[in-house]
Structure formats: structure tokens, C-alpha cells
Structure to design on (287 residues):
């Protein structure tokens, strides 16, 4: 089967890009350990929690019921976390803008990225999950290389102009100009090609509610409909502001998750990393 990352058969290719930065796993709403309410509860929650906390202070002479006390303590804890992360308790929209800007700034400075990936791809129509792993390399401007350990032999390569997806099992190579695919909108920021806020609107949720302790989850919705991206979740490490996980939900309800580790930044890369010559007998397809 084709590299799950792009799943060329189910899309028109990259739109076959059901993945990324960019390895396959279910979306928050259906994932066993991730909250279905996390993304939707995000932005307005900070303001609402602040109001609840204020009201609880005014009622401090009233002895609360145990359940009310636990709820109040939980709200207070979340508000405290928000205040510590955001000086002077800025409005929710400012908090979101700051979080996105920090991630954008990191990837605008990075010249190259190399790491191992684990991909978990769930196909809704067949209730099937496909897992894969390998090494991914990104470089500016717009270059990337995915070398799969499993399924062995699969490759995804872009030299910044042409996107090529090779499926070893079928001996097929899918080719498409990068500017004709939806790759830039979904992944462009990782290679310095686009700004997140130009393509998506954002909500922010605490990583602890999304099975991602020690981090923040940016929930992105495309400003313009994309066949391959209905929601894009970026799991951001709080300390470094690096994206450690990417989760995509497409219009068919399929979920594609990538986790990254052993990451190395700004290495000197061989230009041949972003080229690929398919074996003899390969069928080349232009979607």
C-alpha cells in the first residue's frame, strides 16, 4: 500500500498527503486517551474559567458542597496555569496568537530537521489502522524526504518543486508539482514556506486534556476547505515550542498521526537526500 502519509489512492494524491510533518493515529475525539471536548473547549474556556474563579471568591463565606469545592479547585488550578503562562492574564485571542507565533518563529529559524517518525493511520470507512515508521528529513525551502522502515521501500520525496510518492508493493510512483498539491497549506510552515495564520484559524487547549502532558495542543481549522485537512492538531512541547506530534483529520474522517523523536536540527544535508530514482518497471502516475 502507498505510504500512509499521503495515501495517494484515497485522494488525488497529496491531497494524498494525509499526513505530514509530517506517522498515522486517530483524532482526539475518537482516540482512547484523548478528550473529544478538548479542542472545542479551548479559547472561550480561559475567559469563562476566570469569571467562575472570581465568582467563587465572592462566595467565600459560604461553605461549598464537596462537589462544588472540587469543581472550584479545578477551575482555580486551570486559571493559575493560564496566568503563569500568560503574563497579566491576556485575553484568549491574545493567548492563541502568542502560542502560534512562538511555534512559527521556531520553524522560521530552523534550516533543517531530521528525526525518526512513528505514523498511525486510521481509515474510518474500513475501521482499519495502519502503522509505519522511518526517518524524515525537512529542509528549507520546501524540501522533505520520508524513508520508510515499514513498509520497507516506500518513499516520499520533494525537492521543493516536485512531490513524489513511491509505493513499493505496487511499484507505482505518484508525481505532482508541489504548487498543485495541498502540501504547502498543511505543512508549509515546517519548511519555512508559509505562515500558519495565513492558512488556519486556531484554538488552544491544555495538552493534559489531550493525552499530551507537558505541552499545548494547537487545533487548526483551514480558512478555505481542503480535501485532505479538516482539522490539523499540532502538539507543542511547552519548554522548547517544538512540534512533537501532528494529527490530521480529513474530510472522510480518516485520522493520520505522526510522532517525532531523536530530532536533530540544522544539520548539513546532502542534496541527494531529496532525490529519488524509482526501480525499473515502476509505473509513473500523474494525478
Amino acid at each position: 500500500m502507498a505510504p500512509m502519509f499521503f495515501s495517494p489512492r484515497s485522494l488525488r494524491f497529496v491531497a494524498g498527503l494525509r499526513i505530514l510533518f509530517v506517522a498515522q493515529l486517530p483524532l482526539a475525539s475518537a482516540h482512547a486517551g484523548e478528550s473529544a471536548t478538548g479542542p472545542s473547549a479551548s479559547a472561550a474556556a480561559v475567559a469563562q474559567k476566570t469569571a467562575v474563579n472570581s465568582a467563587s471568591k465572592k462566595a467565600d463565606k459560604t461553605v461549598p458542597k464537596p462537589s462544588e469545592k472540587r469543581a472550584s479547585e479545578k477551575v482555580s488550578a486551570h486559571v493559575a496555569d493560564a496566568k503563569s503562562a500568560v503574563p497579566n492574564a491576556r485575553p484568549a485571542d491574545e493567548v492563541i496568537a502568542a502560542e502560534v507565533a512562538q511555534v512559527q518563529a521556531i520553524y522560521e529559524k530552523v534550516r533543517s530537521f531530521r528525526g525518526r517518525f512513528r505514523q498511525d493511520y486510521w481509515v474510518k470507512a474500513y475501521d482499519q489502522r495502519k502503522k509505519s515508521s522511518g526517518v524524515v528529513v525537512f529542509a528549507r525551502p520546501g524540501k522533505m524526504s520520508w524513508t520508510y522502515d515499514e513498509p520497507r521501500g516506500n518513499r516520499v520525496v520533494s525537492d521543493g518543486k516536485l512531490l513524489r510518492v513511491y509505493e513499493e508493493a505496487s511499484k507505482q510512483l505518484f508525481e505532482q508539482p508541489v504548487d498543485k498539491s495541498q502540501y504547502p497549506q498543511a505543512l508549509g510552515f515546517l519548511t519555512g514556506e508559509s505562515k500558519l495564520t495565513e492558512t488556519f484559524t486556531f484554538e488552544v487547549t491544555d495538552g493534559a486534556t489531550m493525552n499530551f502532558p507537558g505541552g499545548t495542543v494547537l487545533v487548526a481549522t483551514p480558512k478555505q476547505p481542503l480535501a485532505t485537512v479538516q482539522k490539523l492538531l499540532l502538539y507543542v512541547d511547552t519548554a522548547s515550542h517544538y512540534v512533537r506530534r501532528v494529527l490530521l483529520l480529513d474530510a472522510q474522517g480518516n485520522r493520520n498521526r505522526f510522532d517525532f523523536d531523536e530530532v536533530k536540527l540544522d544539520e548539513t544535508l546532502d542534496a541527494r537526500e531529496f532525490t529519488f530514482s524509482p526501480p525499473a518497471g515502476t509505473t509513473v502516475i500523474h494525478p
